[in-house]
Amino acid sequence: MKASTLIPFAIFMLSQTSWPVGIFLGKLDLMKEQVAVFLAGTIALTLATLVPYILFRNVLKRSDPVVLTVSVFCWSCMIDLGIGLELDGYISNFIGFYFIEGEPYLFTAHGTLINYWDGTVQYGLGLAMIILFCQKRSYRDVGLYWVGSILNSMVVLLPGGVAGKHPFKLSILLNTPYILLPLFAGFKFIHERHSQKTPIRKFNSIWHRPVDFLFLIYFIGAISISIFRALAVLNGNAELMKDYTKIYEPYLLDESNFPRFQMLAYGYFFLIYYLSAVYALLYPGQNWMTDWSIIHAGASAQGQFSYIVGSIHHRTPASLRSPISGFPGLVFWTINLALVLVPHFFMLWCKRNEHMYGCVSLVKTENDSKKLNSLKKEK
């Protein structure tokens, strides 16, 4: 078996060992203490690092810190999938001790869904990055999407876990690598982007670019919605805000605080991106737009999945579940589906028009210009 096939298969099989490890730990009385749970998680993640490291160094003869990171995360992704399945009652006696002495806030709808997302989408993204790396192909775009997805999950999960109704447990610190290492990966990907090139061609104004104009309208609307909902979850006094949370999105008032922190993420982090996108649409030629559109697409996908499904999940009190029919349901679905679908359309649009929002075509244009000048000199 070729190394490019052997290593992804080996890491896939390694990730499946999380199931027997979780079952074994669940049978130990020692796991009734939060310190023991924290130490067990630390040791497990450390050991899960050794096999991928050996495989990349000794079999593939090359390694990459980002790919090594996602290889370890693949192991924990299967733990998270098991947690989600056990929380919803599909399996039992897997790792129930972790809900009590590890991260009790996972008992919530948001906690359940973030585990499903981690065990499926982020697991798939991680395996895709490993496969591409082993085949000596670029995994940068997949990596940027993965960075956006995992960072949004942590931006919401950790504050919600600390400031929510559940007691603080040491195991919340096990999430530290899931913040620091994706940040490192994001810095690495952004640094690898080509330096800004001055575009040779001039672009039409926004009034002559109908698709860009529609995206501009969307981002202006997204800015308004983000500010409105952020103020609403901060107990805004306006009657419109009170009516909105009561009628259209009561899940915003959930005492777990996860919906609140997701709205604050929109009101602060996402808002900066929206403003940057408006600038890039008005003044094309910004080579960073494509990268950030990919990061934002990943973040919006993770955030909206957890929020939308969480708002109708059985763990959410019936009085706080979002309406799914009638005019209130139409408002809820229109806003929240737009916030996840349009970012992906914009990402694809940026990839298609990298001469306007990326860097590849700008560099290529410069090279083409040099070739043209060279031909002119030869003549």
Automatic annotation (TrEMBL):
Top-level taxon: Eukaryota
Domain (EXPERA): residue spans on this chain: 63-186, 211-347
Pfam families, A to Z: TM_Tm6sf2
GO CC, alphabetical: endomembrane system; membrane
Compartments in which it is found: Endomembrane system
Primary subcellular site in the record, as a coarse category: membrane
Family of this protein: Belongs to the TM6SF family.
Name of this protein: Transmembrane 6 superfamily member 1-like
Name of the gene encoding the protein in the UniProt record: 106070520
